[in-house]
UniProtKB/TrEMBL annotation:
Protein name: Mos1 transposase HTH domain-containing protein
Pfam families given in the database record: HTH_48 (PF17906)
Organism: Parnassius mnemosyne (clouded apollo)
Record-linked InterPro entries: Mos1_HTH (IPR041426), Transposase-MT_Hybrid (IPR052709)
Domain spans labelled Mos1 transposase HTH: 8-52
């Protein structure tokens, strides 16, 4: 996860320096190799930063929690 956030920071830097998304992705691939985010994700994040997004981490989402293991559930068992 840390690696992904780092790559988003790099993309944000590229956007602020008017480096194209294609060139940004090329630099990410040269730096991160197989750990590089996908082309689709790179373009999505590039677009988001271009439109003014400031935050590089995922925003909290509503919906079903990823796990049901809570202190309350453990105490019930």
């Amino acid at each position: 996860m840390e690696n992904i956030v780092e790559q988003r920071v790099c993309l944000k830097f590229c956007v602020s320096n008017d480096i194209s998304c294609g060139e940004s992705l090329k630099m990410l691939r040269n730096t991160y190799g197989e750990s590089c985010i996908s082309k689709t994700r790179a373009y999505e994040w590039y677009k988001a930063f271009k439109e003014g997004r400031e935050v590089v981490v995922d925003l909290p989402r509503s919906g079903r929690p990823s796990t049901a293991t809570t202190k309350e559930n453990i105490d019930k068992i």
